[in-house]
Design goal:
- By secondary structure, this protein is mainly alpha-helical.
- The strands form 2 sheets. Strands 1-2 form a two-stranded antiparallel sheet. Strands 3-4 form a two-stranded parallel ribbon.
- The longest helix is centred in the first third of the chain and has 37 residues.
- The radius of gyration is 22 Å and the shape is globular.
Length: 263
């Protein structure tokens, strides 16, 4: 009996150690305090050290080929579905309507910063009249004189963002991730916040944790910027396929069943 108890105790200890090792290489889907407490107990390091350890572990996980395969497969499936089932008939319709209301291309291309700050052409259905400030002055109000009548409808339901699924298929964006900003805005935000550049450790997304928490649209204050960065960095620290599915689900719910006004 004593020998059996010893074997069981050894096995239990071994299982606990294995579990702890595995937990260090998998994303953690909990709140930040729980993560900090867990790693503080495990490593017995000062706070700044175990916080850095969490970030390093997650960076390694994001570079893991298995996670990259999961993420890319998810992106392709969602993007192909949207392209074939929605854009295939919606694009011709909006092409005609956009052309009838104002001059200019139906698809608007705007330079934005992507992974590692590399610029790329972000696609959108054109919701504004052609103007010289479209790449330098962001829309700050729904009644901006540059926005067309059709553009107001497209922006209200985020339909103007649908062409970005083509960016996803090209590998420039992902379905879930921090939203990309105009190059002029990015340059400003980097000067304001020392953490802003960390958002570019991953590809920009069509939707994200910040967006489902009403951090959308124009960033008009440092408080708005801080909230956006907080959600984006939390997503990066806890990125996983499960997290992406939850964010996509909540995005769809908000689109069809109402959304509160973002800032």
């Amino acid at each position: 009996m004593e020998l059996k108890k010893k074997k069981i105790n050894v096995m239990n200890k071994h299982n606990i150690k294995v579990h702890e090792e595995k937990s260090k290489v998998r994303p953690i889907f909990h709140d930040s305090k729980a993560i900090f407490d867990r790693y503080k107990r495990a490593t017995k390091l000062p706070k700044k050290n175990y916080v850095k350890r969490i970030h390093d572990i997650q960076k390694e996980y994001l570079k893991n080929p298995y996670y990259g395969f999961q993420k890319r497969t998810f992106d392709i499936i969602i993007s192909l579905g949207v392209t074939l089932l929605i854009l295939s008939w919606l694009y011709p319709l909006l092409f005609v309507l956009i052309k009838l209301e104002s001059k200019g291309p139906a698809i608007f291309k705007q330079k934005r910063n992507g992974l590692h700050m590399d610029p790329f052409n972000c696609y959108k259905f054109r919701s504004m009249r052609i103007n010289e400030f479209c790449d330098s002055i962001p829309v700050t109000d729904a009644n901006d004189y540059r926005i067309t009548n059709l553009g107001k409808f497209l922006r209200k339901y985020s339909l103007d963002e649908l062409p970005q699924f083509l960016n996803v298929l090209k590998g420039e964006m992902t379905v879930v991730g921090p939203r990309p900003h105009m190059v002029s805005e990015t340059n400003t935000f980097i000067e304001i916040s020392q953490d802003f550049h960390k958002r570019h450790d991953v590809k920009p997304g069509i939707t994200g944790l910040a967006q489902i928490n009403n951090c959308r649209g124009y960033i008009g204050s440092i408080g708005h910027l801080s909230s956006r960065i907080k959600y984006d960095l939390f997503y990066i620290r806890n990125a996983s396929l499960r997290f992406d599915i939850i964010i996509v689900y909540k995005t769809i719910i908000q689109m069809f069943f109402g959304r509160s006004k973002g800032h």
